Amino acid sequence: MLGSVDSNTGSPDLGWDTDQFPMDIRNTTLVMKAIVEQGGLQPGGLNFDAKVRRESTDLEDLFIAHIGGMDTFARGLRNAVRIIKDGLIAGMVKEQYSSFSLGLGQREDEGSASLEEMEAFIKQNGEPNVTSGKQEKYESIFNHYI
């Protein structure tokens, strides 16, 4: 169960949180997808532990930042629900990892396969074939929902 989400953001170039309001639809879509898939937020919500930028000096800027941040999360929620309902990405992920749904792959996923058992499997079957992760395809499909 999730409680409250600290939903401020920062510059990806810096690598740390700069307490900015969330204005990136891609990020809020990913966050809301994770929240929906985990059953939502109970009893908490989104916490804007954020500040307006130094250049934003009017009181109005603070209101616009809060409204803009909530609108960005609302749009992210709508996008996330469409992604989940369509099931296209989930189906692709399921297919990509289908070897984990039977045999040794399933036992490994469940945590019941031993290291010795996996070693014996590789010795008998050789190295697995390299398959594409299809990163660009996933990103292109994700962008369709934005």
Task: Explain what the structure shows.
The protein has 146 residues and is an all-alpha fold. The chain is built from 6 helices and 2 strands; from the N terminus they run E-H-E-H-H-H-H-H. The protein has a two-stranded parallel sheet. Strand 1 (5-6), helix 1 and strand 2 (46-47) form a beta-alpha-beta unit. Helix 1 (25-37) crosses helix 2 (59-86). It starts with a strand and ends with a helix. The model has no long low-confidence stretch (mean pLDDT 89).
What topology emerges from the helices and strands here?
Layout: E1 5-6, H1 25-37, E2 46-47, H2 59-86, H3 88-96, H4 103-110, H5 115-125, H6 135-145
Parallel strand pairs: 1-2
Shape: elongated
Average of pLDDT: 89
Tell me the span between the first and last alpha carbons: 27 Å
Q: What's the tally of helices?
A: 6
Could you give the order of strands across the largest sheet? 1-2
Would you identify the regions where 5 or more consecutive residues have pLDDT less than 50?
Answer: none
Largest sheet: 2 strands, parallel
* Helix proportion range: 40-55%
Kindly summarize this structure in a few lines.
The protein is 55% helix and 3% strand. With 146 residues, it is an all-alpha fold. The two termini are 27 Å apart.
Features:
mainly alpha, 2 strands, two-stranded parallel ribbon
